[in-house]
Amino acid sequence: MKKKIIFWVEEYFYNPNPIQKLLSFVLLPLSYLYCFAMFLRFKSKKREDLGIDVISVGNLSVGGSGKTPLVTALASNYEDAAIVLRGYGRNSSGLVVVSNGREILCDVSASGDEAMIYAHKIPRAVVIVSEDRKKGINRAKEMGVKIVFLDDAYSKHDIKKLDILIDVESKNSSCLPSGPFRERLWSSKEALVVKEGVDFKRVVELKNKSDKMSLITAIARPQRLDGYLPEVISKNYFEDHHTFSKSEVVDILKRDKADSALVTYKDFVKLEQFDLNLSLLDMYVQVDKNIFKTVDNYRGCNNAKKD
Predict the structure, then answer these.
(1) CATH architecture of 43-199+288-306
(2) What kind and span of H or E run contains 55?
């Protein structure tokens, strides 16, 4: 039931049928109220300088936008970097240090899938999950980092930071619950808006390819993968951040008589424990040098003010 609801909501937001469009129209008054409440929340916040360079990468709408590969590409470019994120879907709470920049300190159930991706892909970076981003940033400072990247923290208006926003196209530009937008880019807030295909480009590598592969994935809006997929026997979609059991993966492979499960890295960090044959659709992004220039200029201005 949960899976059906999540997929219905994704369709409602990004590819609505006529009935869903009608529902969206009916809910517009609630969207206006919600958006106004978010504006008041924004105006009530005062930015706090936490004494370290903070870069946030996010988007305004719900659902996937490519934040994880973009954060990975940016953070990989800097020494003494940390990544702080909420850790959605984890079975833990509070602040957890996933990686200290030398070794991974917990399993994926405690970290959540996205944090474990960072720990795997940027082994020299500190990775921290915390619902309270300020606590996460301060812990990173204590561990000696010089720059912190926040995954999906545009709405944290009480933190002084550089906001990088990924522009996500949608047929519905309304705020929740009529549309997918959690917030607006408020006119008095500065942010660098970037677009996939213009400011950064995805590169896909297929690793451990087999003759017969079944796609098994639990990412938001999994249809986004269609342009990168090789030939597969079947496409098996689970809700975003789904916790897999070994039996459900084995059942799919047996049903399809497949040689391997084709997965994204987000799925891989959860499935590697099962000792199954996995083919990896590994994605990374090539980032326009102007984004790095913006980050470096922001850091330079911060350091000049401190001096």
Answers:
(1) 3-Layer(aba) Sandwich (3.40)
(2) strand 53-58
